[in-house]
Design a protein that fits this description.
The structure is a single chain. It is built from eleven helices and 18 strands. The protein is elongated and about 75 Å long. It is an alpha+beta fold. The chain starts with 19 loop residues before the first helix and ends with a strand. Strands 1, 2, 3, 4, 5, 6, 7, 8, 9, 10, 11, 12 and 13 form a 13-stranded mixed beta sheet that branches. Strands 15-18-17 form a three-stranded mixed beta sheet, covered by helices on one side. The protein has helices at residues 20-24, 27-33, 38-50, 52-68, 77-100, 104-117, 119-124, 126-130, 260-264, 278-289, 314-322; strands at residues 133-137, 144-147, 153-156, 161-165, 174-185, 195-199, 202-206, 210-216, 219-226, 229-233, 238-241, 246-249, 253-256, 270-277, 292-296, 304-310, 327-332, 335-340. The protein folds into three domains: 12-129, no CATH class; 153-262, Sandwich (Jelly Rolls), CATH 2.60.120; 269-340, Phage tail protein beta-alpha-beta fold (3-Layer(bab) Sandwich), CATH 3.55.50.
């Protein structure tokens, strides 16, 4: 029995999984096991719950992976490249052995062992295994506008990374992965292909619309300007948004009231403040310019800011902050100190 699917969704569940080895080499199953794709997680859990035979087969695969899994370690780009090279070599060696003396059962054991070498890569860079990809990356202080393969436009904020799969075809999902902040104007397709933005804790699913997404270490939110989007969380919760909605994720999805022009001002290299605490500006400066910023004085970070400040040059921004008359700004190299004006 197959699980209920989202209308129009093309599912891996139509595949025939004859044995455990099929699961070990299936990217959607691995995405469920490593909890890296909320859609795969939802579909596999529904299928496993509905099909006793698949539940047993998946249990065998999980037990085996648990015996082989190694702890994830942070690796540099050079280390990742080295591991990739070793992985390819081991795959070739395993293939050669399978042609000569390794039987079917021992072959999938060997294939699973090879898979363990890729665990660190899979956890750190899921796109490397799942999809050939392209990416957009912005430096500190840089804002860049680009076109995606389907004609959709995206404006990427400072210190952000957008990865997208290649070879988009109408009728299939268009997927991107975001770290940082970006504004999307998604193009509609004749077959109404879904456009999916993957961020920490949830996915954003649309067909054609305009929206802003923030996905940074300490915050994640979506502001919908036009159209409609649906958010899917890792826990299986679904939330539909309408134009003007702002949804923030902390431990769960929550709608909040915000000024939309304030959220989108970064696209025009501006910051709009309407009783905004200084601590919010400090967070923006850290994110956009990568500097070490601190304050001196009790309650200083809660002081309210009003007005519009430029955000295309750090020195000009700090000068604008100091010109309010409330703060003294000391900028030396990569360090900034903000004090109450004497």
């Amino acid at each position: 029995m197959s699980p209920a699917l989202i209308p129009g969704e093309v599912s891996h569940m139509s595949k025939n999984y004859a044995g455990v080895e099929d699961l070990l080499t299936d990217q959607s199953f691995l995405a469920w096991y490593f909890r890296t794709d909320t859609r795969c997680i939802r579909q596999w859990e529904e299928w496993i719950a509905a099909d006793p035979a698949m539940r047993a087969r998946a249990g065998q695969a999980v037990d085996f992976l648990r015996t082989l899994r190694v702890d994830e370690e942070k690796m540099s780009e050079g280390q990742i490249t080295l591991v990739e090279s070793r992985l390819l070599q081991k795959i070739r060696e395993a293939e050669n052995k399978s042609l000569s003396r390794v039987g079917g059962y021992r072959w999938w054991m060997a294939a699973a062992a090879v898979f363990v070498v890729a665990v660190g890569i899979y956890l750190l860079r899921p796109l490397l295994i799942q999809h050939p990809s392209d990416e957009l990356h912005t430096a500190y202080g840089e804002v860049r506008e680009s076109r995606l393969p389907d004609g959709s436009s995206v404006v990427v904020n400072a210190d952000s990374r957008l990865v997208f799969s290649r070879g988009w075809q109408d009728g299939k999902d268009r997927e991107v992965w975001l770290k940082g902040e970006a504004f999307f104007h998604v193009a509609k397709t004749p077959l109404k292909s879904r456009f999916i933005v993957h961020v920490n804790h949830f996915d954003i699913i649309v067909t054609g619309t305009q929206f802003n997404v923030v996905n940074r270490q300490d915050k994640a939110n979506v502001m919908l300007k036009e159209g409609s989007v649906t958010l899917h969380t890792e826990e299986g919760r679904e939330l539909k948004m309408v134009p003007g909605d702002f949804v923030e994720y902390r431990s769960s999805l929550e709608k909040k009231a915000v000024r939309n022009d304030s959220v989108l001002a970064w696209k025009e290299h501006k910051l709009i403040f309407d009783g905004t605490p200084l601590r919010d500006l400090i967070s923006i400066i850290r994110e956009n310019y990568g500097v070490d910023i601190s304050t001196s004085g009790d309650g200083l970070e809660e002081k309210k800011l009003y007005g519009i400040m430029p955000n295309d040059n750090l020195d000009v921004l700090l000068l604008a902050l100091q010109s309010t008359g409330d703060f003294e700004v000391i900028h030396e190299g990569n360090k900034i100190l903000i004090k109450a004006h004497p």
